[in-house]
Amino acid sequence: MNIQRWIARREPNWQRLEALLRQVEKKGLKSLQAAQIKELASLYRSISADLARARTQQVGNTLIQNLQSLTTRAYAQIYQGSSRQEWQAVLNFYRWGLPTVIQQTFPYIAFATALFLLGALVAWWYAWQDPSFMSLIVPESLIVRVRDRGELWMGSIVGIEPLASTNIMTNNLSVSFGAVAGGMTAGLYTAFLMVFNGLMIGAIGTLVGQNNLAYPFWGFVFPHGSLELPAIFFAGGAGFLLAKAIVFPGKHRHPDALKFYGSQAVQLVFAIVPMLIIAGIIEGFISPNPLVPTPFKYLFGMGLFVLLVAYCSHRKKG
């Protein structure tokens, strides 16, 4: 290889990359037009090849160092810029995209919520009418503790908060993912989970009410329940979206329906996971904490729920 001729032929590209990098380093990647960004990436690849050739041909340390500097700077701008854009896309999704998806899928979320409330209402009604009904839903050990000892069970969390919080998160995530995946059973398993969880909370709520423990019980539930229950409803809505794609694809072909409704379901999962993580931390550290006044727990839970409703109602202007 004629080194001088090769350098002369390739040097304009090196100079062009240097000029683009100076502009990016001074004004940012957004200062480049789309064609210039493509040119920057192309030059980076070609000059990376030049660097490899220069090392093979031993053209001199100075040139190799200059080419190494160019490729390092180009790599940093291209891939760090890409990383910044990806993080910006994530922020934009949680700021605007997710509330929009929640609003678009609200009928499915509302249906899941209605099934839960139906289960809670049925449990409340039958628990008051037939005392034996309680034992069909609530574990006997819990009934004995509340009815015979007059005490709640949440104090067992105190002292093992990190372990309890982790177990709570794992359990809630398992239930929620089960509700989402239940959509593949035409929504039958999703519906079962919504009704069953409603029956459970309705029966337990009735049990503590009958034994004058409703105030501290709901004081325990409010802080984390303001996020945990809506997350479960979102999971139910996601499951029913999948069920719609399978059972009622409408004018879409089944693969197209699954792609469309499945995309919405996945986006709801991006809400469910952080909500349940936060709820698990609250349930492990705040909800059972005897040092936190019960009125504060009610206010904290209601405040979180109001913020959640405001976030879900948020719309992008323009």
Automatic annotation (TrEMBL):
Protein's recorded name: Membrane protein
Domain of life: Bacteria
UniProt entry keywords in alphabetical sequence: Membrane, Transmembrane, Transmembrane helix
Annotated source species: Chlorogloeopsis fritschii PCC 6912
Taxonomic classification: Bacteria, Bacillati, Cyanobacteriota, Cyanophyceae, Nostocales
Pfam family, one: SpoIIM
Transmembrane segments: 105-127, 152-174, 186-209, 229-247, 268-286, 298-314
InterPro entries on file: SpoIIM-like
PANTHER family assigned: SLR1478 PROTEIN (PTHR35337)
